[in-house]
Amino acid sequence: MQAKYLKDYQAPDYLVDTIELTVELLAEKTLVESKVHYKKANPTATCLILNGEQQKVLSVLLDGRALAASDYLLTDEAMQLDNLPDSFELTIKTEIDPVNNTSLEGLYLSAGAYCTQCEAEGFRKITYYQDRPDVLAVFTTHIIADQSEFPYLLSNGNKVAEQQLSDGRTQVTWQDPFPKPCYLFALVAGDFDCLADTYTTKSGREVKLELFVDKGNLKRAAHAMSSLKTSMQWDEQRFGLEYDLDVYMIVAVDFFNMGAMENKGLNVFNSKCVLADQDSATDADYLSIESIVGHEYFHNWTGNRVTCRDWFQLSLKEGLTVFRDQEFSMDLGSRAVNRIHQVKVMREHQFAEDAGPMSHPIRPESVIEMNNFYTVTVYDKGAEVIRMMHSIVGEQGFQAGMKLYFQRHDGQAVTCDDFVAAMQDANNADLSLFKRWYSQSGTPEVKADIRYSNGTLSVTLAQHTPSTADQQEKLPLHIPVNVAFFDAQGQLLTDIAGGAEQVLHLTQAQQTFEFAVASQPYVSLLRDFSAPVKLSYNYSDEALSCLIPAETSQYTKWELMQALYNKHLLAKITNQNYQFPTVIGDTIKALMADDQTDKALLAEILSVPSVNSLLEIASGATIDAVIDAQKALKNMLASTLQAELQSCYQQNHIGKYQYSQNAIAQRSLANACLGLLAVNAKSTKNITLVELVNQQYQTADNMTDKLAAMSAASIIGGELFAGIIQHFDQQWRGDALVMDKWFAVQARQDVDDILDKIEQLQSHPDFNWNNPNRVRALIGQFAMFNPVQFHHSSGRGYRFLAQVIQKMNAINPQVAARMITPLIQFSKLDDARIQIIREELAKLAELPKLSKDLFEKISKALQQ
Ligand code: B3K
Ligand code: ZN
């Protein structure tokens, strides 16, 4: 299996003006005809190579003349045609089998509805074509089907014709006026309920909005529709960007490999990322729907109108669009809490990816299977890189850069360099060193050393990026380090050059920044996580107890609290007998007593650092020590804070559901308290606390509180949990999206018979190996969020996951490759565990039909 390299990029030999697709959906097969106008673009080209897989070729016509099979070369992956004129029309008819397509890529059947997923390289499973993002064409799509079975026949753009054929079937025709790469093509055929609405753009055009959901689900569609309208308005206000077609459609399907897909004018969504109501969805679901609807909508400009030249440039659209959706959520909700969630993704997942065998820069240099590069690095680190540029040039400068980017590149397929050039040119800025973030992988470590003597404060910052699996040598980066200076009373220093809050630009391996100040200040570092780095600085407990209440950045309060936790967790990890100091509990008590403290922030502060994030920073520690230390901290908090937790719970558990930012914050705080109270209930067998959890489950009028009670019950276990599990099953069986929560809570439970339980759950009527949501809810949650059981020293967790991967390799390679993540990121584990994992990976590597997706990850992991 061959890798492709960024350095080998070559522009396409042939360009396409128009493509006309006719897709005939028949019960036992699907017929696809593509009529494409090609123009030679490279005068020295001698042949046209079209990508195509898993199709039966029925006929090939060149300018209307049938070609014999000997006139073209056919392999498993391509069709090659030689001796072509400079401009011609090629008509290819093929047969495909969507009904048995369990990979959920290309055209497939999802619970009775046909739908497509073409990004990154799925269009080649639909027809023979140059399946690459720099071939832009105007698409016309005819869909032929039996309308009684498939009342809605949808594709990109505007519907321009609909006719009854003589055999009673229907043919509809769609035309998308905007030239696009084939990865943005979409087709849907099915029977849905439709929620329709309209949006008037700021220039006064009326856009039809249509949201298609499974029959009977209309009551769960309103939130996604209002999220869409909010997104459209936000993009006009903040970025000056307006929608461009007359209709915007979203279809929710049950079988989907990821969250959603931004196909031009016709988004296809995982139903999990659309459907929500008070009874069935949590606050987290509501917020995630809002952000994903926004993300896909924002792609219309950053991705669709301006697209990627090649897939190595994926972060051009994804990093930027994640940055945009993050800003959208932050403008709408709590900036601090959103930032905390973004940073957790970086620390818990992206840092681990960069430390593992799949480490790659945000613009990768080589790829075997493109689907493996829709990663936290390309997406989330990519967004951090955009965020740093935003902080370097400021909001106004950033908007000027965006404007120039669209002026220069609307309608084009471009590179990350083009984006940075626009930012640079619009701002007269020098981003030449900054650009290294695009090509260098790994997590930089920034060490701070702060000294004070004779009226001079010296802040020395040193950077070092450890070598990664893909790249030995590392060079210094441009790292913006956001700092603030406080006096011992917690007041921002007024008389310091550059201001009390400023950015130190670290551009060399080591730099010292000096300031004249009258007395020794406390310095808060890397505020707002101003760069995606690991900061090492040993704050004293005194500094932290001064800075945490003093910080004016709400996010940074949380960050400093993490520093306090981590510092003492690391001490506990190295010494089991270490006693946590009272400063931890006292700091939290003070925050809880202060009615100025943001409730949602307090909820975040009450959740202790995850095992994954600790593994990243506790070098040389065993996972057992990490898990024990984390448990000990939870127990300490639960017992020291019990009185405060109980009263905080009482004050914030209002019971009556409302959907507002304030109500969400209160629920999150009450439920964070409930979680810790459950820890206490378990260790002390306190019946009142057990009853509190039960009460909340029984009386909750919304899914957030129900699920929080169910999770709390899973900590306590015993009859309480068994009863709740049974009750929930009776209430929701058959409603698979809701049952996913039920599968997940059980998969995360820290009990010794967990694998037997999971095996039993696999025979539950709502479980289905072909549906990625189910597999992720049960198996994915176990592997990612049940560290104690997954990493059981016997290795049984690893062996179990390996078996599942083997099974999923045959069903759905993309899902299999995503789920293998915890098995390949083993570098922080001990030798005994690594040994077991390696054996399992070696067995998987021998599978007769190993997918490219798994091959790439397993072979890299085994090379480590
Ligand atoms: N662009 C799609 C992701 C496609 C993943 C292909 N394996 C969704 C998104 O990022 O918006
Ligand atoms: Zn995206």
From TrEMBL:
<dbReference type="Pfam" id="PF01433">
    <property type="entry name" value="Peptidase_M1"/>
</dbReference>
<dbReference type="GO" id="GO:0006508">
    <property type="term" value="P:proteolysis"/>
</dbReference>
<dbReference type="Pfam" id="PF17900">
    <property type="entry name" value="Peptidase_M1_N"/>
</dbReference>
<feature type="domain" description="Peptidase M1 alanyl aminopeptidase Ig-like fold">
    <location>
        <begin position="442"/>
        <end position="537"/>
    </location>
</feature>
<feature type="domain" description="Aminopeptidase N-like N-terminal">
    <location>
        <begin position="85"/>
        <end position="184"/>
    </location>
</feature>
<dbReference type="GO" id="GO:0008237">
    <property type="term" value="F:metallopeptidase activity"/>
</dbReference>
<dbReference type="InterPro" id="IPR024601">
    <property type="entry name" value="Peptidase_M1_pepN_C"/>
</dbReference>
<feature type="domain" description="Peptidase M1 alanyl aminopeptidase C-terminal">
    <location>
        <begin position="541"/>
        <end position="863"/>
    </location>
</feature>
<dbReference type="InterPro" id="IPR027268">
    <property type="entry name" value="Peptidase_M4/M1_CTD_sf"/>
</dbReference>
<dbReference type="InterPro" id="IPR035414">
    <property type="entry name" value="Peptidase_M1_pepN_Ig-like"/>
</dbReference>
<dbReference type="InterPro" id="IPR037144">
    <property type="entry name" value="Peptidase_M1_pepN_C_sf"/>
</dbReference>
<keyword id="KW-0645">Protease</keyword>
<dbReference type="InterPro" id="IPR045357">
    <property type="entry name" value="Aminopeptidase_N-like_N"/>
</dbReference>
<dbReference type="GO" id="GO:0016285">
    <property type="term" value="F:alanyl aminopeptidase activity"/>
</dbReference>
<dbReference type="InterPro" id="IPR014782">
    <property type="entry name" value="Peptidase_M1_dom"/>
</dbReference>
<keyword id="KW-0479">Metal-binding</keyword>
<comment type="function">
    <text>Aminopeptidase N is involved in the degradation of intracellular peptides generated by protein breakdown during normal growth as well as in response to nutrient starvation.</text>
</comment>
<comment type="similarity">
    <text>Belongs to the peptidase M1 family.</text>
</comment>
<dbReference type="Pfam" id="PF11940">
    <property type="entry name" value="DUF3458"/>
</dbReference>
<dbReference type="InterPro" id="IPR038438">
    <property type="entry name" value="PepN_Ig-like_sf"/>
</dbReference>
<keyword id="KW-0862">Zinc</keyword>
<keyword id="KW-0031">Aminopeptidase</keyword>
<keyword id="KW-0378">Hydrolase</keyword>
<dbReference type="InterPro" id="IPR012779">
    <property type="entry name" value="Peptidase_M1_pepN"/>
</dbReference>
<dbReference type="GO" id="GO:0008270">
    <property type="term" value="F:zinc ion binding"/>
</dbReference>
<dbReference type="Pfam" id="PF17432">
    <property type="entry name" value="DUF3458_C"/>
</dbReference>
<keyword id="KW-0482">Metalloprotease</keyword>
<protein>
    <recommendedName>
        <fullName>Aminopeptidase N</fullName>
        <ecNumber>3.4.11.2</ecNumber>
    </recommendedName>
</protein>
<feature type="domain" description="Peptidase M1 membrane alanine aminopeptidase">
    <location>
        <begin position="224"/>
        <end position="437"/>
    </location>
</feature>
<dbReference type="InterPro" id="IPR001930">
    <property type="entry name" value="Peptidase_M1"/>
</dbReference>
<dbReference type="InterPro" id="IPR042097">
    <property type="entry name" value="Aminopeptidase_N-like_N_sf"/>
</dbReference>
